[in-house]
Each structure stands twice: as structure tokens, then as C-alpha cells.
Amino acid sequence: MSTYNYVVTAHKPTNVTHSCVGNFTGPQELNLIIAKCTRIEIHLLTPEGLQPLLDVPIYGRIATLELFRPHGETQDLLFIATERYKFCVLQWDADASELITRCLGDVSDRIGRPTDNGQIGIIDPDCRLIGLHLYDGLFKVIPFDNKGQLKEAFNIRLEELQVLDIKFLYGCPKPTIVVLYQDNKDARHVKTYEVSLKDKDFVEGPWFQNNLDNGADLLIPVPPPFCGVLIIGEETIVYCSASAFKAIPIRPSITRSYGRVDADGSRYLLGDLSGLLHLLVIVHEKEKVTGLKIELLGETSVASTISYLDNAFVYVGSSYGDSQLIKLNLQPDAKGSYVEVLEKYVNLGPIVDFCVVDLERQGQGQVVTCSGAYKDGSLRIVRNGIGINEQASVELQGIKGMWSLRSATDDLYDTFLVVSFISETRILAMNLEDELEETEIEGFCSQLQTLFCHDAVHNQLVQVTSSSVRLVSSTSRELRHEWHAPADYSINVATANATQVLLATRGGHLVYLEIGDGILVEKKHAQLKYDISCLDINPIGENPNYSNLAAVGMWTDISVRIFSLPDLNLITEEHLGGEIIPRSVLLCAFEGIPYLLCALGDGHLLNFLLNTSTGELTDRKKVSLGTQPITLRTFSSKNTSHVFAASDRPTVIYSSNKKLLYSNVNLKEVSYMCPFNSAAFTDSLAIAKEGELTIGTIDDIQKLHIRTIPLGEHARRICHQEQSRTFAICSLKYNQSSTEDSEMHFIRLLDDQTFDFISTYALDQFEYGCSILDCSFSDDNNAYYCVGTAYVMPEENEPTKGRILVFVVEDGKLQLVAEKETKGAVYSLNAFNGKLLAAINQKIQLYKWMLRDDGTRELQSECGHHGHILALYVQTRGDFIVVGDLMKSISLLIYKHEEGAIEERARDYNANWMSAVEILDDDVYLGAENNFNLFTVRKNSEGATDEERGRLEVVGEYHLGEFVNRFQHGSLVMRLPDSDVGHIPTIIFGTVNGVIGVIASLPQDQYIFMEKLQTNLRKVIKGVGGLSHEQWRSFYNEKKTADSKNFIDGDLIESFLDLGRNRMEEISKSMNVSVEELMKRVEELTRLH
Amino acid sequence: MGSWIVGDWPSFDPHNFSQLRPNDPSKKTPITYHPTHERTLPPPDQVISSEAKNILLRQFYQRGDEKLRPKRAAPENLAPEQESKHPRASVASSSEPHK
């Protein structure tokens, strides 16, 4: 049963909601701080640009983010308020590099109606108080004392009930707010109040202004010397103060964000909903405002926040598109734009819909999202793991090893590719036509399997076979010297670098040679107790051609040993435990930290920190990469060195922020890999897999890869059709003409490889695409796209008319083959028992696919089920139908074949406003609702009474803190049936903030173990700002707050891997489980996403 | 047009962004912060909550305080109230001799 669920983030939120600039990390350091709903990011402004310092998870949804500086402080403090009425003040301790909590508070009221227009949090410019507008009719004040400490908060009654914005005015002897509000006749006004801290009340302020622009929505307080406030409307901008009133008309637009440019408040950047960036200028004479001017600068993403940084650089944070770093040029470009976009920061939000497909047919899911809104709408293809872009490939069976060689020591590029087979060695090289063809290196032995090859100093190459080591000139290709293994002691394994060779023969003999100019010198010999299984002398010290250490893996005692070179003294012996022999060892350095990697025959990988001077191995960690033996090789990409682990589950091992990360390579099975950097194929890899040799380039080394398909319109629904290899989307395009705004809705067909629009069906005026489905019907093998629509008439509360359109893809075109009018919006469509199940307003309706006499088809209504407020989300399994209602949570229906009827079987009687549902298994259903919670309900088939059986029991509750728009069964990673996590069912979800997450249903014992780990982690990993993890994850809506149950927070669990060794040991002790075991079990879970 | 307003952008440190290389692949993802220190908890006197009294009660108490205070304070402090009470007081005092 899927009762025990593990929720983890695969892609963090990218929707930028707030940003601010100030001296946070030091008095002389300028920082950009941005909020991405549940996280903040701290950046430092540097000559090289924005340098990201820290990504800080916040246990709350950020409602306010403000920097401020109380009197006497040398740097800014950060005020954060969350939607669940908590706030904290953070300070950066530069010495410890830690965020410390200056203050923590709860500003919730027991009674109070939460504001409709969101929470407002403001700080008096003279730091006398913090003001919060959280509930209608109340203004909450948190006063500062004269030492900058905060005191008990209190409420003041605010007469205005429909508040649009509140700001503090600058330059007032008493703290003064200006309130923009709407009266009960829908007219908008501003009013000022002084806050009397002594009387805990408002005093009428110095001025007011009635009857503003009906679209006035934003206040900008103006600092001294001008003071006063700017009121941004849809058609006018007004400057208002006690002594002046200036207004200018503007082109109709909805301004959502502003950024102050000058400290004296004379210029502001304004961002509107169509992505236009304007500069608003206060024209003044002798500190008196004489007028306003506005100038169009250019286009950006639709901005939710704008922060002027420095030297004409501006950060544009966006909720609807990618955030940007832009530069304001002094001269306009050819298109008249002053804006130059220099960097883009990917934002998937809002993910309105997505589908999981396997486009490359590699058995690995990719998520294709409908992302962004307005002009910034796009499709995003999100793929886990690293792709190999194939450049060339040849059929070659039985490859046993591969090495690339240069034709001269100083060559930039590799020339030869040595490919070894069981009883021969073949050499490939690039010819003049840049083709790979077979060649010869005369000095090499080609009748034997090559055990190892390497470039050597003095324009030489070295080849090791079972009988000898050959030193060959890379220019003349002739043999210069040969070292023969003693008779009866054939060489089993070997390794080399530019100046050294280490080999092992039968009987546990270890032989160390050094390479001179035309000579191989046997320097040392050691007899070990057991046979040797693998070796490595990759130089990781200062000399790139010489290693002081050798790593040796042993048969029989299953150990790895470190020897010093050249004297072959044993300095470290580490027993690996278990019965699986090490198959590959590698000395390597990531981000300057030396490691020893040791791969076992069963697909496990051990890594150790290596002390290069003492040879000591510490911090042993074990992960499971696959199930087959692994071969390790280093390669470099973009000047950084990484490790490729070839196995049944090829993996790239890399390091980020001094932590080793493992990223899947999107290939099924790789037996060998070697870097092959030839002139024709720069930075490429040669890969041996499944009877094939492939040369390809590798993607950027990162876990998730995101490809953007800009649409210029807003995609709202997506679905993939395997047969036609197409996607179909419902989208809308906003047309902003000078006279009127209108929107057009389309069904678009896209090629699933190129993502080009190949066909379009325009919907009627006022007709919205609500749902889309790929399906086929009983007695008809064709694949159809079914689209559900609604006619959204301005005068109707709910649509009363819609259509179901059935399309077939013919010659790459959408052909309408049937259409059926409905009595409402078709919110959902499902393939159901060879028929079509539609959710239409309050009703669930089943349609048969009927053949008419003339051979055409039509949808014919079969049966339905009433009784919903609005049936928005429907999932089916067998004859069961799970409905997510607008406000009546989840209900379970059943289709009765004999009676041709749909009946309700059970329902959840809670009043949850649903945003997505999914079926986890026969009995357990998952829901997401509009207070950012997840919950699971269970069918109670064994209930004693009808009443009990008719009730869906709530079994799991969890506050996700994200608005989920869609669940889909599937996985972002390739699932190996025989791996430990291969049997864990997973669901992917997409959210408004651009989060892609995974919900994994764990077996009970594993869940209990992880829950215990979570409890322990809560004690060790503290909530930033003192916010509690337990409270954050508790289920929360207007009616109740309940501890989370049967869900665990995978993000917290996986942060175990980021802890220092001491903290890990602390947890290990209280769990009574070894650190290594804990790491292995957590690492396994990270492989779910 | 507009060059007189589009330009002269403020500069706090002229070096900032001077060597910007857009889309530099070496740019790192920030470290995810997981505090394990004790100072995530605020100082004990900086755990803020809201005043328990609601606004109505607070106003009652405030009025109460104000009513108490003027008895000893000079009458000009609460002039309007005094005025309204004055006639009654004078009535009361003047009525006494009639009894």
C-alpha cells in the first residue's frame, strides 16, 4: 500500500518573488538577495558579476523580504515574514559564515480575515517600527526600542477594508504610512496616517488624495529631499505629497514591480505585465518636484521584482519567465532598446501542466512542462542525467579496453584510439577526411589483448600486454624498448602515466618501472600475499607526470592498499568488507581535494578522502551505482576533471561545493570509456557499448538538463502521442493592440523532436482549451487527440457551454473528426474502458465512440454522475474514478458495466479545495489543495457499515508549501529492476513556483527508518531564523493545523549528505546505525530523482 | 531623446561587473545552507508575540487610565470632558444647600 510517502524536490523553486540589494554580508559588500518562495539566495556583486554565495531554505513561504539597518549597525539585517504569520530577522556573521537569528516572532491573530490582496510587510525608513497588514481592518505594528531591538507587537484598527498597498513615507517626524485603498463604490484613494506608538493608534496623517486612477495598485515612497509618494495606475502616474500633486498619463499598462535607481529617489525602473521596462523620472528644481517623465527602455521578462545593482546593471526577477541580469546602455540599439540582456536564470514556473515521455526511447522519462505565462510562455524539456551527443559510431563487438594516444607529447589533440579485444589489439586513427580508419603502430603488439596504454614523455607511447611492456616512439611508431615479464608470470593488470608503469603478474607480484628516453627501467618489485585485481597511479600531486602513490586492489582479502612510489612501501591497507572484489581503483582530485575511488564487482562504489602525504584514507562512503562491475576513468569537460564510471548504469562522478555528486549518463550500458579529444571531435568521449563503438560529446556536467522552447504564448495543457510522435498543446496568445486587449486560444500540434508547430486549430472566440488527451477507443485502433473546451463568456459566472473535439493526426495535420457540444466546461478528459470520460462542470459524463451508418464516428453520451461543485481533476483506474472537486475534496466513483451507470462509492468529507489528484494504488489516492498541502485518503472496503465504507479515510497529511498543478506517474531517472530503488513507485509533480518534485511510496520498514532519521535530523539541522521544521510541515488550512503524518521530507533527509562528519556521527550514534550505512541508504533515495 | 535621463547610472563600486563574462560555465551553484549551530535561536528577549489584549479591551483600559489620571491632573488636559461635566458638578454643588 502506498501509504508511506517520501516527498523530495528534483528541481528547486525558480519563481523569483522578491529581491533586494544592500550590505548584508559585510559593510563593504554589496549583496543581491532574492526570494524564490521558500528559499532565499544571497549573491555578492563582484567584478565578474553576480557571485552566488548561499541558497537558504526557509521553513515558510516568504511573504516579505526587506533589508534594513537599525541605528548603530554597520551592515544590513534581513527581515523575512512568512505566509503562516512567522517572521524573523537574520544577520550575517562573517567570521563564522553563518546566518544568525536576531529575532523571531509570531504575528498571527486568532481572529481575523486574511487579506485578499496578499500580505504587506514594511519597515519604517527611520527604523522606528515594522508594519504588517495581514488581516482585513488591522495594521500590526512591531516597534523597535532605542537599541534596535524589537518589542511586543500590537494591532491598530485600520478603517480601510480593501487595501491595495501600504508604504511608509520618508522624512516624517512621526512614522507615517500612506494607504492605497478601494472604497465600497470601487473608487480608489490614498490616505495617510501617523502611527502613534504611545497610544497604539493612528492619528490622521498630513494629507490624502481621493479619486485616483481606477487601476492604481502600487505605491512608491520617495526618499528625501522630495519625500511624498508615487501612485502607479494603469493610465496615470501621480506624484503626491503634502505640498505637491503632479500627474502624467501613460500608455495603458499594468505595472507590477519597481526598482529605485538613485538614492535621492529621482528615477525608478517600472516593469509591467507585458514585460516592458520604463524609466520614471521625477523632474525637480531646487528640491521641488516640478513634474514627471516616463521613458520606455526596452523589453525584459515580465518582472515581478526589479533591483538596481550597480554601474547600470539591473536584476529582473520574474515569476512568469526566466529572471535576467540586464544592462542599461547609454545609447539605444537598432530597435531603440536601451536594455541588453546579459544573463538568464532559468525559471520553470508556473508549471501549469506537464507530461512524462521517453523521447529518446532509452527507458528514461523526460518531463515536458507548460511553463511561464503571457509572452514568456514556453515548453521546457527537463531531463535527469547527462546526455551523450553521438558524433560517429561503428559496430565493434567484444571491446575489452580503449585508450587514446597522441602522436607527439606536445600535441593538443589525440590521434590514435587503441581498441583492445580478447586476442588482438586494433588501432584507429583520424584520416585526412576526418574519418576514423584502422591504422598501425608498428611497435605495438597487435596479436595480444592490450592491458593498458598511455602517452609517455619524450614522444613515446607505452603498451602493456600479458607478456611485456613496450615503449614505442610516437613519431616513428617503432619499438624502442621492451620489458618482458618472467616466464610463467603473465601480466594480469597494469597501469601507467607519462613516466611510470605499474603492473601486477600472476602470483601477487607487483612490478614498478620508470620510463626514460628509449628505456624502461625496472625500479622495484614487491611480492604480495594475494593476487592483484586492479591498480592505479594517476598523478594527483603537483607533478602531472609522476605519482608518489599507487593504489592497489586485492583479491582474496578484499582490500585496497596504498603504496608509496618509487619504493613500493605499503603505507595504508583498507579492508573493504563483504565478499565482492574491487574491480577498479582510481586516484583523483576534485576541486583540489584528493580522493581514492574504488569500484566493486557488484556495482558499488566506495570513496575515501586521501591524505597524499601520509596515504591515509578517511571518510569512507559507499554508494550503489549499478549491479555490474564498474570501470573508472577520468575525463575532462570544460577544463574540469570528472570521473566516468562505466557499468550497466553509467554514471559521471563530479564535485560541486566540495561534495561528490553522481549523475546518470543517458546510455543503457557502457563497458568502457576513454576520452578522445581529436581535432575533428574535440572534447569527445569514445564509448564502448552493446557491440558498438561510439564517439560523442558530453552535455554539461549537471544533474538536471533543461531545454527551453519559447512559444511566445501561454501553453496551458500538454499531451504526447506516441503513434504520431507529436505533442499537442492548448495555448492562448495575448494580442495587445493599441485599442483593445484580446486573447486567442489554439490547439497546436508540435513535432516531438524539433518542437516546431506543425499544425494549428484555432478555437472560437471566447473558447478556452481546458483539457487534452491522447486516447484510442474500443473497436478503433486510431490514436486520437481529444480536447475539452469551455466558452468563457464575460457575463457568466461559470461556463454553460463547451465542446469536446476529437482530432486525428494525418500527414502531420490536425484533422477534426468529431465534435460534441457540452453543457459546461470540459475540465478533464480520461480514456476509460475504451470510452471517453469527461468532467463537465458538476458532472462526470461517459461517452461511447459510435460508428455512424456513413462510416463516420461520433461521441454518444452513455451515462453520467452528478453531485460535484465543479469536477476539476479526474483520474481513473480500472472501473474506479477518482474526482478532485473544486471545494469538496476527493470522491471515489465506480462504473457499473451491467447497469451502464456511474455511482459514488466513497468520499472525503473535508472541504479541501483541490488543485490536483492522482491514484497511488487501488486503495490510496493523493490530493493537493490550494493551501499548499498534500494529503492521502484510503478507501475503506472492509468497513463494517455503509457509512464507514462510504468515507475515504485521511491517512496522510503534509504541508508541501507549493501549489501543485499536476501529478503524473513516472520517473525522471532510468529505473533498474534489480536496483534497490527500482521497485519504489514514484509520482512526479509540478508547481506554480517551478518546482518539479517526486513522491515515492516507500515500503513501511524503510519509511519508519527514514522517519526516525528525520526526527534526528530535526535536532541537528536547525531551521534558518529559528523557524521550526515540524511546524512548517504540519498540515495547515483556515480550519485546522495538524502534524504531518505518513509523509516525510526528502529534502531534509537528503541534507544528511551535506553534514560534516561529526554531525553525521552524532546522528549515527542516536540512530544506532553506522554512518556508512546511513549514507548509503540516503544516497539510494537521492537516486530516485 | 531621453539621453539626459537615460544615463549617469549610479555607481557604488566601479569595479562591479567590470569583468563580467556572461554565461560563464565556471559559475557555481550556491551552497545549500543547513545551519547546525545554536544561534539559529534568537536571544530570549527577542521572541516576539502579539499583545494578547484585543483592540477594544486595550481602548477600555486606555480610557480607564485616562479617566483616572485627570482627577489629579490639571483640568485643561481634558478640556472638552471637563466642560460637559462642569454644569452637572455645579448643579450638584449648588443643589446641596437647597436640601
Quaternary assembly: heterodimer
Number of H- or I-type helical stretches of chain B: 2
What form of chain B results from the Cα inertia axes?
A: elongated
- Measured by DSSP, the beta-strand proportion of chain B falls in under 5%
Helix content of chain A: under 10%
Describe the structure.
The complex is a heterodimer of chains A (1089) and B (99). Chain A is globular. By secondary structure, chain A is mainly beta. The longest helix of chain A has 17 residues, at 1004-1020. Chain B has helices at residues 55-68, 79-95; strands at 31-32, 47-48. The interface between A and B is large, with 87 and 52 residues.
Keywords:
heterodimer; A: 1089 residues; mainly beta; five-stranded mixed β-sheet; 87 strands; 5% helix; globular; B: 99 residues; mainly alpha; 2 helices
Short description:
The complex is a heterodimer of chains A (1089) and B (99). By secondary structure, chain A is mostly beta strands. Helix content of chain A is 5%, strand content 54%.
Give a topology summary:
The complex is a heterodimer of chains A (1089) and B (99).
Chain A: E1 5-11, E2 18-22, E3 31-35, E4 39-46, E5 49-57, E6 62-68, E7 77-82, E8 86-93, E9 98-106, E10 120-123, E11 129-133, E12 138-143, E13 154-157, E14 162-168, E15 176-182, E16 188-196, E17 201-209, E18 218-221, E19 229-232, E20 236-240, E21 245-249, E22 255-260, E23 267-272, E24 276-285, E25 288-299, E26 303-310, E27 313-318, E28 323-328, E29 339-345, E30 353-357, E31 366-371, E32 378-384, E33 388-395, E34 401-405, E35 416-420, E36 425-430, E37 436-439, E38 450-456, E39 460-465, E40 468-473, E41 479-484, E42 491-496, E43 500-505, E44 509-516, E45 519-527, E46 532-536, E47 549-554, E48 559-564, E49 569-575, E50 582-590, E51 593-600, E52 604-610, E53 617-624, E54 631-637, E55 640-646, E56 651-656, E57 659-664, E58 672-676, E59 684-689, E60 692-698, E61 704-710, E62 714-721, E63 726-736, E64 741-751, E65 757-762, E66 767-777, E67 780-791, E68 802-810, E69 813-822, E70 826-832, E71 835-840, E72 843-851, E73 857-865, E74 871-877, E75 880-885, E76 890-896, E77 901-907, E78 914-919, E79 924-929, E80 933-938, ...
Parallel strand pairs in A: 1-87
Antiparallel strand pairs in A: 1-84, 2-3, 3-4, 4-5, 6-7, 7-8, 8-9, 10-11, 11-12, 12-13, 14-15, 15-16, 16-17, 18-19, 19-20, 20-21, 22-23, 23-24, 24-25, 26-27, 27-28, 28-29, 30-31, 31-32, 32-61, 33-60, 34-35, 35-36, 36-37, 38-39, 39-40, 40-41, 42-43, 43-44, 44-45, 46-47, 47-48, 48-49, 50-51, 51-52, ...
Helix pairs in contact in A: 2-5
Chain B: E1 31-32, E2 47-48, H1 55-68, H2 79-95
